[in-house]
Amino acid sequence: MSFSFAALGNDLYTGARSVPVVQKRNRFYLVSGLLVAIAVIGLVVQGLNLGLEFRGGSEFRVSGTQTTGDYEQTARDAVGAAEDQRGVNVTRVGNDTVRVQTERLSQADSQEVRGALADAFGVPDANVSGTFIGPSWGASVSQQALRALVIFILAVALTLSIYFRNWRMAAAALIATVHDMVITVGIYALSGFEVSPATMIGFLTVLGYSLYDTVVVFDKVRENTTEAFANGRMSFAQAANLAVNQTMVRSINTTVIGVLPIVAVLVVGALFLGPGVLLDLSLVLVVGIVIGAYSSIFIATPVLVSLRRNDPKVVELGKRAERHQARKAKDVGAATGAAHRGEPAEVVETGEDDAVVVGGRPAESGDSATLTGRAVHKYAQSGPRNQPRRPPKSKR
Q: Domain residue spans in the chain?
């Protein structure tokens, strides 16, 4: 039997199948708690590898050289021979350029390091460039990024509260967003990748993407829960879980389509280009998009349900839904039992409740049980075809 992703999506949308995301939310809370703990440990123990733009220092680039050998040790030996310098960061840029970053050096020391690098790699002095970057630029960028983050969070909280007319939805969306950012930054710290201005741009991009995916799910949650409050046929948790299932395939498809080209850039950058803007940006986007899709499905809506579980309206809706579902099971079971006995049976929709008439009398609880849980046609009969009986044709 072949698997059809489209058929699965249709079953999840109609409710024929259901993934109990909300019902088993504690398991997903545990998984997220472990991921956040690992991320925090990575940030505390290893910390972020801040780039030269943030900590300041000297940078040298050796172009026109072969980077297939042990270029890193060659560069370290050259810098060590010129100046007893520790904390040297050596990376490859492209196929023929080596980048060497050190702490701030004086003009004389910089000239000495340039000459040592030229001799070590066997290139002319003109192929070695040296620059100095002060930490003030990185501090300014960090301040602007934090300011943008605060403004972003405040604007998002206000906008979502107005759009959904419920502050708990805004709170759940922000909790999911913070969850994504902590895990993304933690994984970035554990990977040891350098934090550059492109990384900061990637972090802010992940915020927008994660929030967008969550809002799409919440829009369906609002639609389903509004209908549930009107007819009382599903509890708040059931309506929210149906919304998650209805948007699950869409979220997965969007994530896969968004991640594939970024993974291609990440692979090309890691294998051929070396550290740089593309590699820094692609790594944070891949991690952030995947974590954002996970949180929009398994964290945001469960958190919303947890925040509203003690709401009097939600509690009352749960009681109404429980009564309705109990009557529905009894009434449809009676109709199915009547169909098996060959008696006419009809399920009459009466708004919030359903009534069943069996053979001209009200249904009784002991008639039968149902397997499908769906209404039975009023002419339904026992037999393989389940069609109304026709009178025999007269013989001429």
A: 5-50+137-309, 57-133, 320-362
**Distance separating alpha carbons of residues 31 and 50, to the nearest angstrom:** 29
Among the listed residues 229, 251, 237, the one whose alpha carbon sits nearest the alpha carbon of residue 302:
237
CATH class of 57-133: alpha beta
**CA atoms within 13 Å, Cβ hemisphere of 21:** 27
Segment 121-126 shows an average pLDDT of 81
DSSP letters of 20-70?
-TTTTHHHHHHHHHHHHHHHHHHHHHT--EE-HHHH-EEEEEEES---SS-
pLDDT per position as a tens digit, 161-196: 888 888 899 899 999 989 998 998 888 888 877 777
Q: CA-to-CA distance for 218 and 301, rounded, in angstroms?
A: 7
**What count of Cα atoms within 13 Å lies in the side-chain half-sphere of residue 338?**
27
Whole-angstrom distance between the N-terminal and C-terminal Cα of the chain? 51
Helix residue ranges per DSSP H, the chain: 5-14, 25-45, 52-55, 71-82, 107-121, 135-164, 167-191, 197-231, 236-268, 277-298, 300-307, 312-341
Condensed to tens digits (0 to 9), the pLDDT of residues 67-96 reads 556 777 777 777 775 555 456 777 777 667
Q: What is the dihedral of CA 99, 105, 107, 109, to 10 degrees?
A: -80
In the DSSP assignment, the letter for residue 218 is: H
| Res. 356 pLDDT band, cuts 50 70 90 | very low
Q: What are phi and psi of 255, to 5 degrees?
A: -65, -45
Domain 5-50+137-309 - what CATH class? mainly alpha
For residue 17, what are the contacts with CB-CB under 8 A and spacing of at least 6?
A: 8, 11, 245
**Residue holding tokens 């040298």?**
60
Question: What SS3 string covers 279-312?
Answer: HHHHHHHHHHHHHHHHHHHHCHHHHHHHHCCCCH
Query: Letter for the amino acid at 89?
Result: N
Asked if 12 and 19 count as a contact pair (C-beta separation under 8 A), the reply is yes
Distances in Å between the alpha carbon of 146 and those of 159, 203, 322? 20, 11, 48
**Under 8 Å between Cβ of 52 and 101:** yes
